[in-house]
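seq:
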Amino acid sequence: MDRSLDIQRLEYSQRRMTAMPLAGMIAWAMVAVAGSLLDTLDAAMALFAATGSIVYLGLALSKLTGENLTDKARPKNAFDALFMHTAAMSLSVYAIAIPFFMAEPTSLPLTVGILTGLMWLPLSWVIRHPVGLWHAGVRTLGVLAAWLASPSTVSWPCPWSSWRCTPSPCWCWNGAGSVCSTVPRPPLRAPRCRLERTRT
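struct:
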């Protein structure tokens, strides 16, 4: 018997959801290190590789966190497919980030940092918890502020650049997402079955 979307949403909302934020933390830490050590083109390649591998890294980490997102014995859930669609949506925004990067090389941490964080918004709706709204909102403001304040986007000399400071809000908020995902959420109520009366 097929489970209703309400039941599947309830099951999905009760998961730990730690692996993907941890994967994001690791990826953005790698971007920050690469931005500190490499030239712009190499740092850009590192950013593409690191952020493009977040989903795969999250799938691997899920075996360590006990979530095991690739477990075929687990019942199928429509919201797993929704999550993968939002991940694909985030990756498709490279079509905006790459041409902007070609015109302005310092823009890549800004555009990728903000656009790939958009996938947190539907997650917040699915699990009925504001963590995704907080993550997307604060991450967007933090990335924008770090990028605007970085010396490579303004005209004073300084040893750090947008490649070093812009990934920091992404790293911090993925960390916050990991912590929030381990906090027990209040249980959602299962939908009540409505029995229709038959006329006799």
